[in-house]
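Quick one:
INPUT:
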């Protein structure tokens, strides 16, 4: 049987990984500044994480959500203390798209409205509702096209108000710092204005922290820089360091009732133990502070390279913008210098999404390689 061919693949087969390094079948060592698309938060195969999952699988890997699972409560408590999201309620699922799908569904139940407002260049995953919240999706199925999603430009509060005023929009969904769209971020004034408009027009504000959450930007959640209080926060990627887990944090103003949301696998014992280990390591190793410190070093080093026209992003969700397409440069970095980087919708942008354990010495390797590759 062949695989359904939807991914253009690099010709590399990773077989082993440790912290910020990935090794292929020939034992070639690659520096991972991509983190499997911002997924690897605490480093590959962290011993504490490996032990947590291994010990849990020996005891109980999964049982249904219809029976008590104290690991979910432990995870909720740890999340509250590290993220500062006091009073929020946690619903667990398995991926980013599923988190957003549940967030949108909940918004629709809560407001009794059906339309969604998203921002140009945003990306919220591939589901019947959430894929439509992606104006840059190349392929939109008839089902997706029927879903009514309005798109406005990031930063345009007037356009937001024009739509919310019609009283049909259940949710505004936003990445406070855009991922695949190219790391654009608006002003604090804009995010605060957006939160006020959502309150005024009874619209649920969903902060999509699937990529930017779990410390990646130097705050636990990227919206925290702007001092707003979203109604729902969606999370995934860095939450499990590779173990599939997603979730939404739900403001206390939105009430639960039996059967409102549900999932078979979400919040299973293995996923919870993986995510608990992630949070413990983030705390013990001060990884959020490391993200901030290493980010400053990255920006300083990048400023020494004349070909870099702009450094985008914050924390360890970063991009280097050039005035030429970077596909060839990325190929050189991976095949000649053995460094993984990421791409974006903008063909001139290299994205840097390393494990939060990355150190200055790794960036030194990267910038030496980049200078060489630019020659
Ligand atoms: N939201 C954002 C901001 C993302 O970057 C992604 C994935 O790249 C998703 C949602 C979808 O997550 P998943 O691929 O886990 O469904």
């Amino acid at each position: 049987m062949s695989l359904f061919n939807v991914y253009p693949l690099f010709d590399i087969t990773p077989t082993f990984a440790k912290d910020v390094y990935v090794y292929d079948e020939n034992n070639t060592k690659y520096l991972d500044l991509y983190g499997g698309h911002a997924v690897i938060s605490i480093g590959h195969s962290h011993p504490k994480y490996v032990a947590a999952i291994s010990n849990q699988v020996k005891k109980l890997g999964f049982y249904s959500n219809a029976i008590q699972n104290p690991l979910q409560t432990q995870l909720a408590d740890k999340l509250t203390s590290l993220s500062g999201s006091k009073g929020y309620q946690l619903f667990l699922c398995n991926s980013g798209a599923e988190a957003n799908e549940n967030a949108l569904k909940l918004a629709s139940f809560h407001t009794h409205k059906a339309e969604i407002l998203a921002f140009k260049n945003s990306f919220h995953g591939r589901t019947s509702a959430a894929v439509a919240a992606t104006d840059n999706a190349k392929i939109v199925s008839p089902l997706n096209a029927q879903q009514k999603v309005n798109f406005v430009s990031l930063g345009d509060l007037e356009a937001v108000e024009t739509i919310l005023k019609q009283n049909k929009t259940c949710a505004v969904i936003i990445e406070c710092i855009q991922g695949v769209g190219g790391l654009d971020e608006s002003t604090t004034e804009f995010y605060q204005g957006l939160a006020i408009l959502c309150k005024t027009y009874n619209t649920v504000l969903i902060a999509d922290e699937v990529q930017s959450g779990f410390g990646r930007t130097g705050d636990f959640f990227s919206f925290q820089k702007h001092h707003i209080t979203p109604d729902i926060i969606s999370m995934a990627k860095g939450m499990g360091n590779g173990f599939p887990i997603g979730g939404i944090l739900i403001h206390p103003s939105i009430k639960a009732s039996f059967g409102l949301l549900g999932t078979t696998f979400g919040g299973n014992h293995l996923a919870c133990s993986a995510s608990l280990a992630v949070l413990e390591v983030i705390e013990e190793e001060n990884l959020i502070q490391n993200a901030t410190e290493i980010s400053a070093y990255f920006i300083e080093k990048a400023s020494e390279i004349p070909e870099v026209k702009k450094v985008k992003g914050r924390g360890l969700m970063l991009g280097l913008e050039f005035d030429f397409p970077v596909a060839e440069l990325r190929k050189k970095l991976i095949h000649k210098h053995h460094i993984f980087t990421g791409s974006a919708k903008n063909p001139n942008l290299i994205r840097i999404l390393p494990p939060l354990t990355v150190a200055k010495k790794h960036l030194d390797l990267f910038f030496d390689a980049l200078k060489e590759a630019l020659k």
